[in-house]
Amino acid sequence: MMFSKACEYGIRAAVYIALHSLEGRRVSVAEIADEIDSPVAFTAKTLQLLTRNNIVKSIKGPNGGFEIEREDMDSVKLSMIVKAIDGDQIYVGCGLGLKKCNADQPCPLHDKFVDIRSNLRKMLTSTSLYELATGLEVGLTYLKR
């Protein structure tokens, strides 16, 4: 597992919101939680992070829900979602989870992770929410585990 559980749910929630925003529809926390198979309270906290980081918009009121503008889907990159939920630990943490691993005291995997991290950063910063949403148009069932 590369991302935390919260981050996985956050990515799936953002994609679900984007899919429905492309259809001009806002979605509720309960609907998102059901679709991505996540507890409602956990989903609400994750969506709060996405909203606070300007990744999705939360609209209050009877016709409210979560949405993302079409033009924002291109500028929202996967890296922004990961950073909002998991921070930058994916780029700096030890591959073996050791606390004292660094360039001066590397673990056996440290140098091998340099290329992997570089490629991961490229992928995360170049993949847009629009790309993810349109790539899943084949069927929403892929959002569930």
Automatic annotation (TrEMBL):
One of its GO terms (molecular function) is DNA-binding transcription factor activity. Pfam families: Rrf2. GO terms for cellular component: cytosol. This is Rrf2 family transcriptional regulator. It comes from Flagellimonas marinaquae.
